[in-house]
TrEMBL record:
Swiss-Prot/TrEMBL keywords: Membrane, Mitochondrion, Mitochondrion inner membrane, Repeat, Transit peptide, Transmembrane, Transmembrane helix, Transport
Membrane topology of the entry: Multi-pass membrane protein
Pfam families: Mito_carr
Protein family according to the UniProt entry: Belongs to the mitochondrial carrier (TC 2.A.29) family.
Major localization class: mitochondrion
PROSITE patterns (UniProt xref): SOLCAR
Parts forming coiled coils: none
Solcar repeats: 62-146, 159-243, 260-338
Lineage top rank: taxon: Eukaryota
GO cellular component terms given for this protein: mitochondrial inner membrane
Keyword Membrane: yes
Protein name (Swiss-Prot/TrEMBL): Phosphate carrier protein, mitochondrial
Length: 364
């Protein structure tokens, strides 16, 4: 219900004059090209139609739904692919005495659990991050359109970094609520020896021991980890993409092939991912330790770990998150290409703002 309200608000915002859709059920269709031309020229009426070659209209419910699908595919698959590295990273965070380094962590895990031990937690990872991806990418597009319409075209350009930060933070707030139960189960499986080997074993045990709170006790530190991470992920990506096309790519985006555009997307995603890992790592360590220990609070865990302990496992996480973020943006953009979705170019200064700046320059 809440998601439907957000989608409707984004699509039908009263501030959304450039993209606003008005449905007139009783109005007859124009019969001639002259009549259609007059209709298009009306300032407050615009026909709802996808651009030539696109499968949907930008800002429509169909568009937002496909963005959510792209998020499921990009997040669910990529996080599942790096489960072995994630498992070792979590064990480095919660038991550094036993797992002394990344390579040592892999060696100990293989010796104790075999090759199959490296896949522990894959099911809650796939389910949890698919749900998170649906909300993260789908709602990001919703909030970005909604907030930009609220502040107007010129302010949306001038304050675009703040717009990306606000939209991504809003989306991640809901995404983490969807992720939290599966994240708790994943960490429990990966870091508590003998507790459970599968999701089907873990869920009833966690419910029996701690009740529903077992699945949401890590929600606040998850917000602390994921919201800064996602804000950096989207804002850094959007601005890096803009800078790459402006200063690095030797030709305009419109002249690049789809393959060339996807390469630029991957590069911008990897740069964003490195910063994401650094910004969110202390909270990630707390989440891993918190879900291992029953009855502990996030503050207790942070105090016990100390400043240096909060940065345990940073290097494998940089590798993991950098690769993940790049792959997610690549897959997400590739899904948009595959589904023939609108892919607006990096933002450009509105003509109205150019005129205002020109008047200011001319008056000096």
């Amino acid at each position: 219900m809440l998601f439907s309200t957000l989608l409707e608000a984004a699509q039908n915002s009263p501030f959304k004059s450039p993209l606003r859709t008005v449905y007139c059920e009783a109005a007859p269709s124009p019969a001639t090209s002259e009549e259609r031309s007059v209709l298009v020229q009306q300032p407050h009426i615009q026909a709802a139609a996808a651009a030539s070659g696109d499968s949907c209209e930008f800002g429509s419910l169909h568009y937002f739904a496909l963005c959510g699908l792209g998020g499921i595919i990009s997040c669910g698959t990529t996080h599942t692919m790096v489960v072995p590295l994630d498992l070792v990273k979590c064990r480095l965070q919660v038991d550094p005495a036993k797992y002394k380094s990344v390579f040592n962590g892999f060696r100990v895990t293989l010796a104790e659990d075999g090759v199959t031990g490296l896949s522990k937690g894959w099911a809650p990872t796939f389910i949890g991050y698919s749900m998170q991806g649906l909300c993260k990418f789908g709602l990001y597009e919703v909030f970005k359109v909604m907030y930009s319409n609220m502040i107007g075209e010129e302010n949306a350009y001038l304050w675009r970094t703040s717009l990306y930060l606000a939209a991504s933070a809003s989306a991640e707030f809901f995404a983490d609520i969807a992720l939290s139960p599966m994240e708790a189960a994943k960490v429990k499986i990966q870091t508590t020896p003998g507790f459970a080997n599968t999701l089907r074993e873990a869920l009833p045990k966690m419910t029996q021991q701690e009740g529903i709170t077992a699945f949401y006790k890590g929600l606040v530190p998850l917000w602390m980890r994921q919201i800064p991470y996602t804000m950096m992920k989207f804002a850094c990506f959007e601005r890096t993409l803009e800078l790459l096309y402006k200063y690095v790519v030797p030709k305009p985006r419109a002249d690049c092939t789809k393959s060339e555009q996807l390469v630029v997307t991957f590069a911008a995603g990897y740069i964003a991912g490195v910063f994401c890992a650094i910004v969110s790592h202390p909270a990630d360590t707390v989440v891993s330790k918190l879900n291992q220990e029953k009855g502990a609070s996030a503050l207790d865990v942070a105090k016990r770990l100390g400043w240096s302990g909060l940065w345990g496992g940073l290097m494998p996480r940089i590798v993991m998150i950098g690769t993940l973020t790049a792959a997610q943006w690549f897959i997400y953009d590739a899904v948009k290409v595959w589904l023939r979705m609108p892919r607006p170019p990096p933002p450009e200064m509105p003509e109205s703002l150019k005129k205002k700046l020109g008047l200011q320059t001319g008056g000096n």
